[in-house]
Structures are given as C-alpha cells and as structure tokens.
TrEMBL record:
PANTHER family: MERR-FAMILY TRANSCRIPTIONAL REGULATOR, REDOX-CYCLING DRUG-SENSING TRANSCRIPTIONAL ACTIVATOR SOXR
Any Pfam family matching the protein: MerR_1
Domain of life: Bacteria
Species this protein is from: Loigolactobacillus binensis
Keyword Repressor: yes
Record's protein name: MerR family transcriptional regulator
UniProt-listed InterPro entries: DNA-bd_dom_put_sf, MerR-type_HTH_dom, MerR_fam
Key words of the record: DNA-binding, Repressor, Transcription, Transcription regulation
C-alpha cells in the first residue's frame, strides 16, 4: 500500500488533485487505514498512471472518464471502441499541433540565441581593439 504523499510525489500531483480525481470518480474509492488516511494499492496506481497520461495529453475529464471506462469494462460495444478511438485520434492531432508549436518556439529561441551570441562576439572584439592613449597605441 502507498501513502498519499508517496503517490503525490511519484505522479507529481497535489494531494488536492488526488482527492479530486477520487471524488469525481476517475479513481476508484481509495482504501483508508484506521486513522482515515488513504492507502493506494498497486491497482489504484495503474489507473492513476493512465489517468495522468491522458490528462497530460490534453484529455478533458469527460474524455479521460471514457477512455478509463474502456480499460475497466469487460464487454465493450463497437460503438464504445469507436468513441474511444475518436478521442485518442483527437488527442493525437492535438499533440501534433502542440509539437509543431514547440518546434516553432524552439526555432525562435535558436534564432535569438544566435543573434545575441553574434552581438556578444562583436562586443568582445570591440573590447580587444587597441586604443590610443597620449598618441600611443595600447591594448585595453
């Protein structure tokens, strides 16, 4: 069994997020010890792992609920599969869009870095030019 602190750290979630996911039914009811503290089982962690991945992919709470239901339902209809596949396709498209956006930002960053490096090099070269003091050339 795993304490809420350990689970929160492992999945980089707040205690409130874990409680919220349980409250709205994305996580099953978590077992409590005699003092009322949550104790997460390995099965709970497996569900939480799927949940966290879906949320990081951009799935809404409703979409996450639908996909998690696919993993938990023994008899799934073709319509349920179709709905799940549609959600996953949407998440894949959104991930492609976000990836393209990140590539654009990465290119912008590289361009600005190169510009600043070039300006820095010019400034260094200016600092190394000999200067005349009392008519005599000396380095800085």
């Amino acid at each position: 069994m795993h304490a809420i602190r350990e689970v929160a750290t492992q999945f980089n979630l707040t205690y409130d997020a874990l409680r919220y996911y349980e409250k709205i039914g994305l996580l099953p009811t978590i077992h409590r010890d005699r003092q009322g503290r949550r104790e997460y089982s390995d099965d709970d962690l497996a569900v939480l792992n799927k949940l966290v991945h879906l949320r990081h992919l951009g799935a809404s709470v409703a979409e996450t609920r639908q996909i998690l239901a696919l993993f938990q339902t023994k008899q799934i209809t073709t319509a349920t599969y179709d709905a799940g596949l549609a959600i996953l396709a949407h998440l894949d498209q959104e991930l492609d869009r976000r990836s393209a956006e990140l590539k654009t930002q990465k290119a912008f960053l590289a361009e600005k870095t190169a510009r600043i490096q070039a300006e820095h090099k010019q400034a260094l070269m200016q600092d190394l030019k000999p200067v005349a003091v009392d008519g005599k050339a000396i380095g800085k």
